[in-house]
Amino acid sequence: MQYDFSEMIDRRHTDSVKWDVQDNELPMWVADMDFRTAPGIISAIKQKADGGIFGYEEVPAAYFEAVQHWYATEHNWTPHTDWMRFVTGVVPALSSAVRRLSHVGDNVLVQAPVYNIFYNSIVNNGRHALSSDLQFHAGAYAIDWDDLATKMAEPLTTMMILCNPHNPVGKVWTSADLQHIAELAATHHVTVFSDEIHGDITDAGHGYTPFAAVSDLAANLSVTAVSPSKTFNVAALHAATLIIPNENLRNQVDRGINTDELAEPNAFAIPGSIAAYTTGSQWVHELNATITANKQTLTTFVQQQLPELHVIAGHATYLVWIDCRDVTHDTQALCSAIRQTTGLFISAGAVYGGDGHDFVRINVACPPARLQDGLNRLAAGIHQFEQA
Ligand SMILES: Cc1ncc(COP(=O)(O)O)c(C=O)c1O
């Protein structure tokens, strides 16, 4: 390995949302990694800081070319640069797209359990979140196609938010899944917003497929959101890109992101993103190897020490979804008890909707030694909960 993913960096008292915890607590909740970002990004940001002038900026062609280069080389998809728009984050862009591409009172489809903030983007804008819940069977999740078709066909359903790959269940959708979604969306005139923020973080040999890459049909009815923020742990850089092949959709979304004022970069967003996309490939591959190993460590630990829990095998994201139904159907109470007794702070699944109340989500993007600390606390917390 060229890069070090074992360094135990102290993030307390750094204004980190994740690490705003008591001294004895260990946070393994929000999707934020405990690794220092790729060196190329740090140098680019330092170089920008050294220039000392931070006036208004426009997004240069080199930014869009860097995004294009990344998708071509990492994901075998070459989106045109003129399909792209810079935005200050995936969630602000999603909320803006919901406002532009659907109407108050419409249904916006999701697949619960899913990233909880999707519900905010829908409900806070006066739309109705309609879920076609993922079916959980024999330890794995799948789409209930009949249910999805029925919900797409509802006259008020105008938009779907796809999480590709899926947070929190860690699923990489196949090209066939994506094409099937595109066909249903086309039949029922539904626009798909494909949130691909987790697309770079997959196990070797399990790369994700961008929704718009599966067919012209999918490309034509979709808005894709990508960002270096999860991949390189640069969420506070506030940089993301919308990719919208369909000109009419692009124009509508473009109006939205401009009236909502999310189309202008801060001083570090552009150099940081260009460096990520042009110099970060090896770093990400080593990161993915580290995450895969951590997921394996967690799975083995749970099998041996906590056989009453069941890890859902997923090939994407650094978030692990764990079935706790043999311990409780109220994992909010479980997580509160674990935090109280051991200081381990993990996410209770109910906020993701669907059957989430039976699950917890654990973030394993940390050095192996910190993961081990977390696993020991998890075992102690579960055992104490069971005995209480
Ligand atoms: C699926 C998904 N989308 C979006 C975000 C956040 O995106 P941003 O910080 O660019 O708004 C997250 C963060 O965890 C996420 O998991």
Automatic annotation (TrEMBL):
InterPro entries: Aminotransferase_I/II_large, C-S_lyase_PatB-like, Class-II_PLP-Dep_Aminotrans, PyrdxlP-dep_Trfase, PyrdxlP-dep_Trfase_major, PyrdxlP-dep_Trfase_small
A Pfam family that the UniProt record links to this protein: Aminotran_1_2
Co-factor requirement: pyridoxal 5'-phosphate
Keywords: Aminotransferase, Lyase, Pyridoxal phosphate, Transferase
EC number(s) on file: 4.4.1.13
Gene3D superfamilies the UniProt entry points to: Aspartate Aminotransferase, domain 1, Type I PLP-dependent aspartate aminotransferase-like (Major domain)
Enzyme class at the top of the EC tree: lyase
GO molecular function, one term: transaminase activity
Keyword Coiled coil: no
Location of the Aminotransferase class I/classII large domain: 33-378
Matching NCBIfam families: C_S_lyase_PatB (TIGR04350)
Similarity field: Belongs to the class-II pyridoxal-phosphate-dependent aminotransferase family. MalY/PatB cystathionine beta-lyase subfamily.
Protein's name in the database: cysteine-S-conjugate beta-lyase
